[in-house]
Specification:
- The complex is a heterodimer.
- By secondary structure, chain A is of the alpha+beta class.
- In chain A, 23% of the residues lie in helices and 35% in strands.
- Chain A folds into two domains: 225 residues, P-loop containing nucleotide triphosphate hydrolases (Rossmann fold), CATH 3.40.50; 127 residues, OB fold (Dihydrolipoamide Acetyltransferase, E2P) (Beta Barrel), CATH 2.40.50.
- Chain A is built from eight helices and 21 strands.
- In chain A, β18 and β19 form a beta hairpin.
- In chain A, α2 crosses α3 and α3 packs across α4.
- By secondary structure, chain B is an all-alpha fold.
- Chain B is 74% helix and 0% strand.
- Classes of the chains: A alpha+beta, B mainly alpha.
- At the A-B interface, β6, α2 and α4 of A face α8 and α9 of B.
Chain lengths: 367, 294
């Protein structure tokens, strides 16, 4: 059983601070949805509103079509996995997992059996009698997931649960979480500031900044077609050029900067925005010795070369003295330029996009 | 120790240690040893001290076991000290929970100040205040009759009522602070996690908050129980003719009968049996001494 979550113009104010600003989103049943954003962007507040620990100042939240106003956290069909997991250290593992069942009056024998079943699901069979302190970070993670699954929630809420784990384990748990989500088909709402996590695990990602949703899309679209400058610079790397839009033809335009005029695509709302910048991903910028027809070119001098194994990252100085970055896949044949070498940085106009700094407000504030 | 030397220098450290040692040895250990030694010797006219009649025996201790009245008073002291301890817990736990987890952090210092102000007044005066409050025609009865809860004044100063009220009032903060500290150290996420899993408030307290606060409750309970059982001021001021506290018996042996030997024996019996009683209760509630020390 899984349910969708609807946020309808939801806002949260703390005093004069607006933590969440008019967020509207439909999270589909069975979906793995991530809210991605820097700390303080309001994503945790959204999670706490869905779980019921904070009431929205304005707007409405529904779960499975049912209005959640006035419904306490202990009556909601959600289960929250806390950032610090919040396992009960004085109960053995199996009692932790079965706590939600104990609350529901399930008898002890059945609780024990259910706990064992869930321990097998999260790949920790036989750990029921252990105390929480005996577990490693990854095992605690699994117990927290099992405890949340035990109450058979329709929506699982996860508040950066992987942030305390080391890199290897984090990558392993990503795959694990994704697999558990697919197996149980419960709606997952996941909060993270780690773009890698969000892109790798989610069906859809909502990027947030300053309490507002900047873009909601599938991971590829977030990365390949960011809606505005914030999304482009928060998700992945970019070479960013300041300037202004010159002549526009169709969905392409000339972008005038101090180091030249470049042809590029025009992003959503960029023409009307107060200020816009040009974004080029490092993997779309190449260093060559001769101009290529139809591509933009900037004369540069190689400043530093970093060999990263599967790719090569080259920092180069443009005529204005700013550092630009180009990344090339290491296919075993590419020659690595040396420091001080004078080359051209070229990029395809199709791969360069002009974006508004932030999407102009569509909500009440702009009228 | 090395830390102390580094911070204050050798001479100042020596002074600290000397003062502490003096306090511990001269003011705590030696008087206790003196009374302990005396408790095994008979009460004799001065001329006979050190004479043939002055030998060690358990006679002073046996005096207690031969006196049913004293035994009864002793048991009542233990029972009512337990009652005081339980009442202190019942009052302190919700208050501690409120202060630790519910009250907004900017009002907590004010609330603590309000709780502490009464402590600035001497214990004697506070006990007298209760003497007035609990009087038959005192303000408490006046108020209760005013609200209409009772229509006849209650005689508070009879039996152990007034003693229990006075002791609870005097020692409730000794329960409040350790319980407050214990609850405050609980991660609020755990309370929310329990609620999120569907737990009603009482089960969250029973399964998550109370078990976490147990060491704090235990240390508060030990403190309140020992202080109550050993209290002399409140029972003397607030007791009625039909309620006597064991400390009053000790006081009578020592200062009315001038028999320090039997008085000492009674005092050590109180200490010993209270310690045993507490150990048993702690074992029953599965609390270890090391938990309390934390």
């Amino acid at each position: 059983m899984s349910a969708g979550v609807d946020l309808d113009s939801v806002s949260a104010n703390f005093g004069s601070f607006r933590a969440v600003d008019c967020v509207t989103i439909h999270i589909r049943p069975g979906e793995f949805f991530s809210f991605l954003g820097p700390s303080g962007c309001g994503k945790t507040t959204i999670l706490r509103m869905i779980s019921g620990f904070i009431n929205p100042s304005e707007g409405k939240i529904s779960i499975g079509g049912q209005d959640m106003r006035g419904i306490r956290p202990n009556q909601r069909p959600t289960a929250l996995i806390f950032q610090n997991l919040a396992l009960f250290p004085l109960m053995p593992v199996w009692e932790n997992i079965a706590f939600g069942l104990e609350v529901r009056g399930v008898d002890r024998k059945e609780r024990r059996a259910k706990a064992e079943e869930l321990l097998r699901l999260v790949d920790l069979p036989g750990a029921g009698e252990k105390s929480i302190a005996q577990l490693s970070g990854g095992q605690k993670q699994r117990v927290a997931i099992a405890r949340a699954l035990a109450v058979e929630p329709q929506v699982m809420l996860l508040d950066e649960p992987l942030s305390a784990l080391d890199l290897k384990l984090r990558q392993h748990m990503r795959a694990e979480l994704r697999a558990i989500q697919k197996r149980t088909n419960v709606t997952f709402v996941y909060i993270t500031h780690d773009q890698g996590e969000a892109l790798a695990m989610s069906d859809r990602v909502g990027v947030m900044s300053h309490g507002k949703l900047q873009q909601v899309a599938v991971p590829q679209e977030i990365y390949n077609s960011p809606a505005n400058g914030f999304v482009a610079s928060f998700v992945g790397e970019n070479n960013i050029f300041s300037g202004r839009i010159g002549s526009v033809s169709g969905n392409a335009a000339q972008f005038e900067t101090t180091i030249g005029t470049f042809k590029a695509m025009v992003g959503p709302n960029a023409e009307r925005a107060a200020s816009a910048k040009l974004y080029v991903r490092p993997e779309h910028a190449r260093l060559v010795s001769q101009r290529i027809n139809g591509e933009n070119a900037i004369p540069v001098e190689v400043a530093d070369v970093a060999f990263e194994g599967n790719f090569i990252s080259i920092q180069a100085r443009d005529p204005g003295g700013r550092i630009l970055v180009s990344e090339a896949r290491n296919d075993g044949q590419a020659s690595v330029p040396s420091r001080g070498e004078k080359l051209l940085m070229v990029f395809d106009p199709q791969r360069a996009v002009i974006l508004a700094d932030e999407t102009p407000m569509l909500s009440a504030a702009s009228g | 120790m090395n830390d102390l030397v580094r911070r204050y220098g050798l001479s100042l450290t020596a002074v600290f240690i000397a003062v502490t040692a003096f306090w511990l040895l001269a003011l705590v250990i030696l008087p206790d040893l003196y009374l302990f030694e005396n408790s095994f010797r008979p009460y004799l006219p001065i001329v006979e001290v050190g004479g043939p009649k002055d030998f060690y025996s358990f006679d002073n201790y046996l005096t207690f076991f031969r006196s049913p009245i004293h035994i009864e008073i002793f048991i009542l002291t233990i029972v009512y000290s337990s009652v005081v301890t339980v009442l202190c817990f019942v009052i302190a736990y919700p208050l501690a929970y409120y202060l630790a987890k519910v009250a907004r952090s900017n009002v907590v210092p004010t609330l603590f100040l309000l709780l502490l102000i009464p402590l600035w007044v001497s214990e004697v005066l506070r006990a007298f205040a209760w003497f007035i409050i609990l009087a038959l025609k005192g303000p408490l009865n006046f108020m209760l009759m005013g609200i209409g809860i009772i229509d006849q004044p209650i005689r508070w100063m009879t039996g152990f009522r007034s003693v229990v009220i006075g002791l609870v009032y005097t020692y409730v903060l000794f329960m409040l602070f350790p319980v407050y500290n214990a609850i405050q150290s609980l991660d609020t996420n755990q309370i929310e996690a329990a609620e999120d899993l569907g737990s009603p408030w009482w089960r969250t307290h029973w399964r998550v908050i109370l078990p976490h606060a147990k060491p704090g409750i235990a240390s508060g309970a030990v403190m309140v129980f020992m202080l109550s059982a050993g209290s002399i001021l409140v029972p003397t001021l607030l007791a009625s003719t039909n309620s006597r506290w064991f400390t009053e018996i000790i006081q009578q042996w020592m200062f009315e009968a001038q028999d320090w030997n039997t008085g000492s024996a009674y005092a050590f019996l109180l200490l010993l049996i209270c310690t045993i009683f507490i150990s048993i209760v702690m074992r029953l509630f599965r609390v270890k001494l090391s938990d309390i020390a934390k």
